[in-house]
Please model this.
Amino acid sequence: MLSKNQVTSAPTKTIETPPPPPPATTTKPPVITTTPTTVAQPTTTDKNTAVKTTTDNKAVVAADQEDLIAVEIQKLDANKASATTKTTATANYIVQLGVFKNHATADQFKAQLVMQGYEAKIKTTKKNLYRVWLGPYPTLAAAKDQQHALEENHIKSRISKEL
Model:
């Protein structure tokens, strides 16, 4: 038997424990910073206008293109001014060939003119009369030329401003 001061040891077993898992961390992906560079790349738009676009989406028009734009604006202004002049200065003329009380009679006369190669038209007046006429002609001279051609075919007419 063993005395009180004697200790017996039992065989020992070594148990290996796995290392603790690494601590949970929330790592952010690395931040990549770049310095924006302005790289102009020409693109073509309508009417062959070249526009340079920068990376910050601002359009920069080339200096020579600004001149072209100024020329286009001048052309538009000139067209607008001439259109205004045309509408105020142009008076159309017609050549009146006859006035009839009866639409059927006016239509027969128009048919005769069409057979001779004229593009006659009929217009009803406020007093329910039927005018047979040719035109409109942009100038008085053009209307007079037509009137002379009618006279050569023994057709009487008179010139007036457009109806």
Strands lie at 41-44, 50-53, 59-61, 93-100, 121-124, 130-137, 158-161. The CA atoms of residues 98 and 132 lie 5 Å apart. Helices lie at 63-89, 103-115, 140-152.
